[in-house]
Write a structure and sequence with these properties.
alpha+beta, DUF7288, Secreted protein
Length: 199
């Protein structure tokens, strides 16, 4: 009789322990909301992939010779990018440039938001020129950069992305990058930055 009672007690303990364990798991799952943006190794892989795509766009544009013309798509009379307000484009890069088309095709059309900034130095201060601003990047944003050297004889582009005949030397202070070497051929060295994140 004693053995039967102990067996029932052990069974009840096992059932109670199982209920407690399942309740704990259910509570933990409800407390921790798992969303597509929850930090995980898969998100890290997505961020790495976005960064690689942005780097590939910059590298391919540099190799094709179309990255710099994107930086020369500047309206010197208005002193900002063609067709953009003073703080850059808010609907993606302009399709009139090869750089803009490449960024939109590789990122924006695939649900990846991006900002484009150009950094340069003026009076020992690092200055940022905003080219494209699609919003505040998420905490999991990725960054890709590419360095470009601009020369005094580089020619600005018009609204159709055709050469205007106006060199950076001609544009003078109307171009956003100051002449870092007035006695030499180099206008300045800039860093193009593409910040990407999932929309």
């Amino acid at each position: 009789m004693v053995t039967r009672d102990r067996g029932q007690a052990h069974t009840l303990e096992a059932v109670a322990a199982s209920i407690l364990l399942l309740s704990s798991i259910a509570f933990a799952l409800q407390v921790t909301a798992v969303t597509p943006l929850t930090g995980s190794t898969s998100n890290q892989r997505i961020e790495d992939h976005q960064s690689v795509v942005a780097e590939d766009v910059l590298a391919s544009q540099a190799a094709n010779g179309t990255l710099k013309p994107g930086l020369l798509y500047w309206n010197e009379s208005a002193r900002h990018w063609h067709g953009a307000p003073w703080d850059g484009y808010h609907n993606g890069a302009p399709e009139n440039t090869a750089l803009g088309r490449a960024l939109n095709d590789a990122l924006l059309d695939r649900g990846v938001a991006y900002n484009v900034n150009v950094y340069f130095w003026r009076n020992d201060q690092r200055i940022r020129e905003q080219v494209v601003y699609l919003g505040k990047p998420s905490d999991h944003a990725s960054v890709a950069t590419w360095t470009v050297t601009l020369y005094d004889d580089d020619v600005l582009r018009d609204a159709d992305s055709d050469p205007t005949g106006t060199t950076l030397a001609d544009a003078g202070e109307a171009y956003f990058v100051p002449d870092a070497d007035p006695s030499g051929p180099v206008r300045g060295v800039v860093v193009v930055e593409v910040v990407t994140w999932r929309m």
